[in-house]
Amino acid sequence: MVNMAIFVSGGGTNCENIIKYFEGSDVAKVALVISNKASAGAVAKAERLGVPVKVVPKAGLNDPEVILPILNEYSIDFIVLAGFLLVIPGFLIDEYDHRMINLHPALLPKYGGIGMYGHHVHEAVKAAGETETGMTVHWVTREVDGGSIIAQFSTPLEPDDTPDDIAAKEHVLEMEHFPKVIEKLLLDSF
User: Fold this and answer.
1) Quick count: other Cβ atoms within 10 Å of Cβ 128?
2) pLDDT over 90 at 176, yes or no
3) Which residues are marked as active site?
4) Could you report the per-residue pLDDT of 79-104, keeping only the tens digit for each?
5) Is residue 156 classed as helix, strand or coil in its secondary structure?
6) Among 47, 67, 68, 151, whose Cα sits 20 to 30 Å from the Cα of 162?
7) Which of left, alpha, beta for 113 (phi over 0: left; psi -120 to 50: alpha)?
8) In what order do the strands lie in the sheet with 149-156?
9) In angstroms, what CA-CA distances link 10 with 99, 109, 146, 172?
10) How far apart, in Å, are the Cα atoms of 86 and each of 59, 125, 160, 178?
11) Are 80 and 4 in contact (CB under 8 A)?
């Protein structure tokens, strides 16, 4: 059984979806949710579903004496970034080399890197006149959004789609595919 931690900064729809997907699984369980914001919607969702939550602000994330003992306390084998907006420090990437993945709301390598998250991505996709968008699951490396791609899924766009429409279409892909990608990856890796 793989013990997963989900790192999240926002509303937590992916976090909630992953927790529910792995309930009763013999592959993995979500053993911990970490948020950098106490006010994140993900905190309440995880608590409601009975998953332990730790709020770890940026300073704690960047301090190995803070974050590593928390991950060890919950025997975390694998980390999923699901709408986590802080850059992961190098020591944590090294500690979880090829055991930490990120979900990006675009078809990387387009629209990745520092500052390209959430609505910023969907606005850039719209501004570029793209005819499709999608989601990418990739390994976390020291290069922001630069890790090897694990899986991508795309959806067509219409010329009159707004950034909100683009976000909604991409989010449908996340809800359908992200937990399945995690499960396959864990079955192949552990």
Assistant:
1) 11
2) yes
3) 104
4) 999 999 999 999 999 999 999 999 99
5) strand
6) 151
7) left
8) 53-55, 28-35, 2-8, 78-81, 100-104, 132-139, 149-156
9) 22, 23, 22, 17
10) 11, 22, 32, 20
11) yes
- DSSP H or E stretch at residue 38: none
The per-residue pLDDT for range 125-152, each reduced to its tens digit, is 999 999 999 999 999 999 999 999 999 9
Helix, strand, coil shares of the chain as percentages rounded to 5? 40, 25, 40
Element (H, E) at 153: strand 149-156
Question: Taking the chain, what is the end-to-end CA distance rounded to the nearest angstrom?
Answer: 9
**Using 50, 70 and 90 to split pLDDT, how confident is the model at 158?**
very high
Residue 5's SS3 state is: strand
Threshold 0.85, pTM exceeds:
yes
Q: Going by DSSP bridges, is the β-strand pair 132-139/28-35 parallel, antiparallel, or unpaired?
A: unpaired
Tokens of 128: 């570029």
Neighbours of 95 (CB within 10 A): 17
Judged against a pLDDT cut of 90, whether residue 190 lies above it is answered with no
**DSSP result, 81-147:** ESS--SPPPHHHHHHTTTSEEEEESS-TTTT-STT--HHHHHHHHHHTT-SEEEEEEEE--SSTT-S
Spelled out in words, what is the top-level CATH class assigned to the domain 2-189?
A: alpha beta
